[in-house]
Amino acid sequence: MRTILCCLLLCIVLPISSYSQYVLLEDAINLDNGCIQLTPDEPYSRGIAYNRTRLNLNQYFEIDFDIYLGNKEEGADGITFVMHNDHREFRAMGTWGECMGYGRWRREYPTGNFISPSIAVEFDTYYNYTQNDPDHDHVAYLENGTNYHTKYWSDNRTDFDLEDNKLHDFRFRWDPEKQQITVFLDGKIVYQGKRNLIKDIFEGNPEVIWGFTASTGRASNQQFFCLKRITRYNLPSKELKAVTPVFPRLGIPAPATLTHNKAGTHDEAALPVTVAPLHLPGRQ
Ligand SMILES: [Ca+2]
Ligand SMILES: [Ca+2]
Model pTM? Predict the structure, then answer.
Protein backbone atom coordinates (compact mmCIF):
# COMPACT_ATOMS: atom_id res chain seq x y z
CA MET A 1 0.00 0.00 0.00
CA ARG A 2 2.84 2.32 0.94
CA THR A 3 4.53 1.62 -2.44
CA ILE A 4 1.36 2.48 -4.32
CA LEU A 5 0.98 5.70 -2.36
CA CYS A 6 4.61 6.64 -3.08
CA CYS A 7 4.10 6.00 -6.81
CA LEU A 8 0.96 8.10 -6.82
CA LEU A 9 2.77 10.90 -5.03
CA LEU A 10 5.67 10.76 -7.51
CA CYS A 11 3.24 10.89 -10.44
CA ILE A 12 1.81 14.07 -8.99
CA VAL A 13 5.05 15.69 -7.82
CA LEU A 14 7.31 15.01 -10.84
CA PRO A 15 5.35 17.00 -13.43
CA ILE A 16 4.96 19.86 -10.95
CA SER A 17 8.68 19.90 -10.09
CA SER A 18 9.69 19.89 -13.77
CA TYR A 19 7.34 22.76 -14.51
CA SER A 20 8.52 24.72 -11.50
CA GLN A 21 12.05 25.05 -12.92
CA TYR A 22 10.89 28.39 -14.30
CA VAL A 23 9.36 31.55 -12.97
CA LEU A 24 6.80 32.58 -15.59
CA LEU A 25 5.79 36.24 -15.93
CA GLU A 26 2.84 37.83 -17.71
CA ASP A 27 1.71 35.77 -20.74
CA ALA A 28 4.30 32.95 -20.47
CA ILE A 29 2.72 29.51 -20.02
CA ASN A 30 3.72 25.84 -20.11
CA LEU A 31 2.71 24.02 -23.30
CA ASP A 32 1.50 20.41 -23.40
CA ASN A 33 4.49 19.53 -25.61
CA GLY A 34 6.89 20.36 -22.76
CA CYS A 35 8.02 23.69 -24.17
CA ILE A 36 7.33 27.12 -22.67
CA GLN A 37 5.31 29.57 -24.71
CA LEU A 38 6.40 33.16 -24.23
CA THR A 39 3.69 34.76 -26.36
CA PRO A 40 0.58 33.50 -28.12
CA ASP A 41 -0.07 34.66 -31.68
CA GLU A 42 -1.84 37.74 -30.40
CA PRO A 43 -0.99 41.47 -30.53
CA TYR A 44 0.50 43.34 -27.57
CA SER A 45 1.63 40.28 -25.65
CA ARG A 46 4.71 39.89 -23.44
CA GLY A 47 6.06 36.81 -21.72
CA ILE A 48 9.19 36.09 -19.70
CA ALA A 49 10.56 32.85 -18.23
CA TYR A 50 13.47 32.67 -15.78
CA ASN A 51 15.18 29.47 -14.74
CA ARG A 52 15.20 29.28 -10.94
CA THR A 53 18.87 28.20 -10.84
CA ARG A 54 21.40 30.99 -11.33
CA LEU A 55 24.43 30.54 -13.55
CA ASN A 56 27.95 31.07 -12.20
CA LEU A 57 30.15 32.98 -14.64
CA ASN A 58 33.30 31.50 -13.08
CA GLN A 59 32.26 28.21 -14.66
CA TYR A 60 32.45 27.17 -18.28
CA PHE A 61 28.94 26.37 -19.47
CA GLU A 62 26.83 25.72 -22.52
CA ILE A 63 23.08 26.10 -22.79
CA ASP A 64 21.36 24.34 -25.63
CA PHE A 65 17.73 24.82 -26.58
CA ASP A 66 15.23 25.06 -29.40
CA ILE A 67 13.38 28.24 -30.21
CA TYR A 68 10.25 28.74 -32.28
CA LEU A 69 9.50 32.20 -33.70
CA GLY A 70 6.23 31.58 -35.50
CA ASN A 71 4.91 30.85 -38.96
CA LYS A 72 4.15 34.31 -40.38
CA GLU A 73 6.98 36.08 -42.16
CA GLU A 74 5.35 39.43 -41.45
CA GLY A 75 4.92 38.55 -37.75
CA ALA A 76 6.69 40.03 -34.73
CA ASP A 77 8.65 40.73 -32.60
CA GLY A 78 11.11 38.08 -31.48
CA ILE A 79 12.75 36.36 -28.51
CA THR A 80 15.78 37.24 -26.41
CA PHE A 81 17.97 34.99 -24.32
CA VAL A 82 18.99 37.05 -21.29
CA MET A 83 21.39 36.89 -18.33
CA HIS A 84 20.96 39.62 -15.72
CA ASN A 85 21.43 40.97 -12.21
CA ASP A 86 18.56 43.45 -12.31
CA HIS A 87 17.50 44.46 -8.77
CA ARG A 88 14.00 43.11 -9.47
CA GLU A 89 15.57 39.64 -9.76
CA PHE A 90 12.98 37.09 -10.95
CA ARG A 91 10.39 39.81 -11.58
CA ALA A 92 12.58 41.83 -13.97
CA MET A 93 11.08 42.67 -17.33
CA GLY A 94 11.57 45.03 -20.23
CA THR A 95 9.20 46.84 -22.56
CA TRP A 96 6.80 45.14 -25.02
CA GLY A 97 6.75 45.37 -28.83
CA GLU A 98 10.10 45.96 -30.50
CA CYS A 99 11.84 45.78 -27.11
CA MET A 100 10.94 42.06 -26.87
CA GLY A 101 10.33 42.19 -23.13
CA TYR A 102 14.03 42.99 -22.62
CA GLY A 103 14.91 46.56 -23.54
CA ARG A 104 13.55 50.06 -23.89
CA TRP A 105 12.19 52.30 -26.67
CA ARG A 106 15.22 54.59 -27.02
CA ARG A 107 18.80 53.96 -26.00
CA GLU A 108 19.23 57.66 -25.15
CA TYR A 109 16.48 57.59 -22.53
CA PRO A 110 17.06 55.03 -19.79
CA THR A 111 13.47 55.22 -18.58
CA GLY A 112 10.60 52.76 -18.37
CA ASN A 113 11.02 49.03 -18.15
CA PHE A 114 14.32 47.49 -19.18
CA ILE A 115 16.55 44.77 -17.76
CA SER A 116 19.95 45.93 -16.48
CA PRO A 117 22.71 45.09 -15.79
CA SER A 118 22.38 42.38 -18.41
CA ILE A 119 23.48 40.86 -21.66
CA ALA A 120 21.14 39.32 -24.22
CA VAL A 121 20.99 37.68 -27.61
CA GLU A 122 18.01 38.78 -29.67
CA PHE A 123 16.26 36.84 -32.42
CA ASP A 124 14.55 39.75 -34.08
CA THR A 125 11.77 39.11 -36.59
CA TYR A 126 10.47 42.62 -37.23
CA TYR A 127 12.06 45.73 -38.72
CA ASN A 128 12.26 48.76 -36.39
CA TYR A 129 14.30 51.73 -37.53
CA THR A 130 14.62 53.08 -33.98
CA GLN A 131 16.63 49.97 -33.04
CA ASN A 132 18.78 50.18 -36.18
CA ASP A 133 17.34 46.88 -37.49
CA PRO A 134 18.09 45.59 -40.98
CA ASP A 135 14.88 45.04 -42.96
CA HIS A 136 15.00 41.27 -42.45
CA ASP A 137 15.20 38.84 -39.54
CA HIS A 138 18.48 38.79 -37.66
CA VAL A 139 20.41 37.85 -34.52
CA ALA A 140 22.27 40.43 -32.42
CA TYR A 141 24.15 40.73 -29.13
CA LEU A 142 22.76 43.32 -26.68
CA GLU A 143 23.74 44.82 -23.33
CA ASN A 144 22.04 46.55 -20.39
CA GLY A 145 18.50 46.76 -21.72
CA THR A 146 19.35 48.48 -24.99
CA ASN A 147 17.86 46.94 -28.15
CA TYR A 148 19.75 49.34 -30.43
CA HIS A 149 22.62 47.55 -32.13
CA THR A 150 25.18 48.35 -34.80
CA LYS A 151 26.06 44.76 -35.73
CA TYR A 152 23.89 41.78 -36.56
CA TRP A 153 23.97 38.34 -38.18
CA SER A 154 21.59 37.19 -40.89
CA ASP A 155 23.77 34.67 -42.76
CA ASN A 156 24.61 37.38 -45.34
CA ARG A 157 21.08 37.03 -46.68
CA THR A 158 18.49 39.73 -47.13
CA ASP A 159 15.71 37.12 -47.15
CA PHE A 160 16.79 35.54 -43.86
CA ASP A 161 13.61 34.35 -42.14
CA LEU A 162 13.24 32.90 -38.65
CA GLU A 163 9.43 32.75 -38.76
CA ASP A 164 9.47 29.59 -40.88
CA ASN A 165 7.37 27.31 -38.64
CA LYS A 166 10.51 25.38 -37.61
CA LEU A 167 12.40 24.78 -34.40
CA HIS A 168 15.82 26.43 -34.49
CA ASP A 169 18.70 25.04 -32.45
CA PHE A 170 20.37 27.72 -30.34
CA ARG A 171 23.46 27.27 -28.21
CA PHE A 172 25.08 29.78 -25.86
CA ARG A 173 28.64 29.07 -24.71
CA TRP A 174 30.56 30.97 -22.00
CA ASP A 175 34.30 30.36 -21.58
CA PRO A 176 35.54 32.22 -18.45
CA GLU A 177 39.23 31.50 -19.22
CA LYS A 178 39.03 33.24 -22.58
CA GLN A 179 36.22 35.49 -21.34
CA GLN A 180 34.48 34.63 -24.54
CA ILE A 181 30.85 34.30 -25.58
CA THR A 182 30.01 32.09 -28.54
CA VAL A 183 26.49 31.82 -29.92
CA PHE A 184 25.35 29.19 -32.42
CA LEU A 185 22.16 29.06 -34.44
CA ASP A 186 21.42 25.87 -36.36
CA GLY A 187 25.09 24.93 -36.10
CA LYS A 188 26.56 28.22 -37.32
CA ILE A 189 28.45 30.73 -35.19
CA VAL A 190 26.27 33.83 -35.23
CA TYR A 191 28.11 35.83 -32.57
CA GLN A 192 31.49 35.59 -30.87
CA GLY A 193 32.96 38.22 -28.60
CA LYS A 194 35.27 38.71 -25.63
CA ARG A 195 33.96 40.50 -22.55
CA ASN A 196 34.85 40.52 -18.86
CA LEU A 197 31.23 39.92 -17.92
CA ILE A 198 31.73 39.71 -14.15
CA LYS A 199 33.68 42.96 -13.93
CA ASP A 200 32.35 45.06 -16.81
CA ILE A 201 28.66 44.10 -16.78
CA PHE A 202 27.69 42.39 -13.54
CA GLU A 203 29.56 44.64 -11.08
CA GLY A 204 31.68 41.86 -9.61
CA ASN A 205 28.86 39.37 -9.01
CA PRO A 206 29.42 36.06 -10.86
CA GLU A 207 25.90 34.72 -10.13
CA VAL A 208 23.35 35.68 -12.76
CA ILE A 209 19.67 35.02 -13.40
CA TRP A 210 18.92 33.76 -16.90
CA GLY A 211 15.97 33.06 -19.11
CA PHE A 212 14.01 34.17 -22.13
CA THR A 213 11.86 37.15 -22.99
CA ALA A 214 9.54 37.83 -25.91
CA SER A 215 6.79 40.17 -26.98
CA THR A 216 4.52 41.16 -29.83
CA GLY A 217 3.16 44.51 -30.99
CA ARG A 218 0.65 45.30 -33.70
CA ALA A 219 2.02 42.25 -35.52
CA SER A 220 2.40 38.94 -33.73
CA ASN A 221 3.50 35.31 -33.80
CA GLN A 222 3.39 32.41 -31.42
CA GLN A 223 6.85 32.22 -29.79
CA PHE A 224 8.20 29.50 -27.52
CA PHE A 225 11.38 27.72 -26.41
CA CYS A 226 12.32 24.22 -25.37
CA LEU A 227 15.42 23.94 -23.23
CA LYS A 228 17.38 20.76 -23.91
CA ARG A 229 20.61 20.76 -21.94
CA ILE A 230 22.93 22.70 -19.68
CA THR A 231 26.56 21.58 -19.57
CA ARG A 232 28.86 22.96 -16.87
CA TYR A 233 32.55 22.43 -16.14
CA ASN A 234 34.76 23.25 -13.19
CA LEU A 235 37.85 25.31 -13.95
CA PRO A 236 40.81 25.10 -14.16
CA SER A 237 40.69 21.28 -14.20
CA LYS A 238 37.90 21.32 -16.78
CA GLU A 239 36.41 18.45 -14.86
CA LEU A 240 32.89 17.88 -16.00
CA LYS A 241 30.69 19.23 -13.22
CA ALA A 242 27.24 18.46 -14.45
CA VAL A 243 25.19 17.73 -17.48
CA THR A 244 21.69 18.68 -16.55
CA PRO A 245 18.88 17.70 -18.83
CA VAL A 246 16.48 20.49 -18.22
CA PHE A 247 13.94 19.85 -20.91
CA PRO A 248 10.78 20.27 -18.88
CA ARG A 249 9.11 17.00 -19.76
CA LEU A 250 11.43 14.48 -21.35
CA GLY A 251 9.74 11.98 -23.58
CA ILE A 252 7.07 14.24 -24.92
CA PRO A 253 7.63 14.76 -28.63
CA ALA A 254 7.62 18.12 -30.31
CA PRO A 255 4.51 19.01 -32.29
CA ALA A 256 4.23 16.71 -35.29
CA THR A 257 4.01 19.62 -37.67
CA LEU A 258 7.35 21.03 -36.56
CA THR A 259 10.71 19.94 -37.88
CA HIS A 260 14.21 21.00 -36.99
CA ASN A 261 16.12 23.37 -39.13
CA LYS A 262 19.24 21.34 -39.92
CA ALA A 263 21.47 23.91 -41.47
CA GLY A 264 24.76 22.52 -40.17
CA THR A 265 26.62 20.79 -37.38
CA HIS A 266 28.03 22.28 -34.23
CA ASP A 267 31.68 23.10 -33.91
CA GLU A 268 32.61 20.82 -31.01
CA ALA A 269 36.35 21.33 -31.32
CA ALA A 270 36.44 24.06 -28.68
CA LEU A 271 34.74 21.92 -26.07
CA PRO A 272 37.20 20.96 -23.32
CA VAL A 273 35.32 17.72 -22.69
CA THR A 274 33.29 15.82 -25.22
CA VAL A 275 29.78 15.25 -24.03
CA ALA A 276 27.51 12.75 -25.63
CA PRO A 277 24.46 14.49 -27.01
CA LEU A 278 21.43 14.15 -24.84
CA HIS A 279 18.88 11.97 -26.54
CA LEU A 280 15.43 13.43 -26.48
CA PRO A 281 12.86 10.83 -27.44
CA GLY A 282 10.72 11.95 -30.30
CA ARG A 283 13.11 14.71 -31.29
CA GLN A 284 15.85 14.70 -33.88
CA1 LIG B 1 10.63 37.28 -40.91
CA1 LIG C 1 12.87 44.53 -34.34
Answer: 0.81
